Amino acid sequence: VQLQASGGGLVQAGGSLRLSCVSSRSISSFSTMRWYRQGPGKQREWVASIFSSGHTVYIDSAKGRFAISRDSAKNTVHLQMNSLKPEDTAVYYCNADNDWGQGTLVTVSS
């Protein structure tokens, strides 16, 4: 399967971005879709998950600021990121079960 992530960019602290991940296969076939990120000099970390049931979970630092959602008709998963902080700067990757997208860079300036 191919996962195409997009939506990254440069934003000031407090701003918002919406990431998208388009799957070449129906996202209904995946049990879980996730977003991960890897900041400069850091290990990749999990950010958010959405399960086939629609249930969502988030890393503590993202709770109340990020929202993961899915559009099954468009085979797309989104990550709405609000109140961005410089520490959110990272390459964001989408993941579907065992498959990975190429990443999209998010840079938050202070």
Q: Could you characterize the architecture of this molecule?
A:
It is a single chain. With 110 residues, this protein is mostly beta strands. The chain is 0% helix and 54% strand. The protein has no helices and 11 strands. Strands 2, 4, 5, 6, 9, 10 and 11 form a 7-stranded mixed beta sheet that branches. A 4-stranded antiparallel beta sheet has the order 1-3-8-7, with no helix packed on it. Strand 4 (32-38) and strand 5 form a beta hairpin. The chain is globular and about 40 Å long. The mean pLDDT is 96.
List keywords for this structure.
110 residues; globular; four-stranded antiparallel β-sheet
Please specify the SSE layout and strand pairing.
Blueprint: E1 3-6, E2 9-12, E3 17-23, E4 32-38, E5 45-51, E6 56-58, E7 66-71, E8 76-81, E9 90-96, E10 99-100, E11 104-109
Parallel strand pairs: 2-11
Antiparallel strand pairs: 1-3, 3-8, 4-5, 4-9, 5-6, 7-8, 9-10, 9-11
Please state the CA-atom Rg, rounded to the nearest Å. 13 Å
Number of strands: 11
Largest sheet: 7 strands, mixed
**Alpha-carbon distance between the termini?**
37 Å
Tally of contiguous helical segments: 0
- Give the DSSP E fraction (strand runs of 2 or more residues): over 45%
Residue share in helices?
A: under 10%
Shape call: globular
Summing up helix and strand content along with how strands pair, one would put the structural category as mainly beta
**Unreliable spans:** none
Q: What is the residue-mean pLDDT, rounded to a whole number?
A: 96
SSE pattern: EEEEEEEEEEE
